[in-house]
Automatic annotation (TrEMBL):
Organism: Protea cynaroides
Protein name: ADP-ribosyl cyclase/cyclic ADP-ribose hydrolase
Gene Ontology BP annotations: signal transduction
InterPro entries: TIR_dom, Toll_tir_struct_dom_sf
Molecular function terms, GO-annotated: NAD+ nucleosidase activity, cyclic ADP-ribose generating
Upper taxonomic lineage: Eukaryota, Viridiplantae, Streptophyta, Embryophyta, Tracheophyta
Length: 166
């Protein structure tokens, strides 16, 4: 019971807040390198960043809090890595980010971390092609279209591309 009270307190501590930045990324791909450094740099600069932690993504009750954090953020930074489109969670976050961008005009600052932006949009390259082949086995064409449309919009925004040379 104490764990439930702690979890409830943790969720309510960020549920109603507005954030300046929401980072969307594949935990396993970038958390222990680029994204953790970016997250820390933003926080150290006094920027209110949505709380980072793998425990946020477990359980069903946290979903609405994440949706509110996305809706309340002023800037979204999706960090596209090789595994980003493997993750349904990342894709649904991106869809919500794009919907909010279209209706409210908040800023999306995509970062392409060791991936080619055209691979993201066109679902090419080994990572993205394989991920969408797997998604096609599990999801109907309407869901795939929603995800692909979101990826296309973000790919065409002003962006930062980080590769082995940078």
């Amino acid at each position: 019971m104490a764990e439930l009270t702690q979890a409830s307190s943790f969720v309510s501590s960020f549920e109603s807040s507005n954030y300046e930045v929401f980072l969307s990324y594949k935990w396993e791909d970038t958390r222990n390198n680029f994204t953790s450094i970016l997250h820390k740099a933003l926080k150290d600069s006094g920027i209110n960043v949505f709380p980072d932690g793998k425990k946020l993504w477990t359980g069903d009750a946290i979903g609405p809090a994440i949706e509110r954090a996305i809706e309340g953020s002023k800037i979204w930074i999706p960090v596209f890595s090789c595994g980003y489109v493997d993750s349904q969670r990342c894709l649904w976050e991106l869809v919500q980010i794009v919907q909010c961008h279209r209706s409210n005009g908040q800023l999306i600052l995509p970062i392409f971390y060791h991936v080619d932006p055209s691979d993201v949009e066109h679902h090419t390259g080994s990572c993205f092609k394989k991920a969408f082949q797997e998604h096609e086995k599990k999801f109907n064409s309407d869901i795939l279209k929603i995800w692909k449309d979101a990826l296309e919009l973000v790919r065409n925004l002003k962006r930062e591309v980080l590769d082995e040379t940078r």
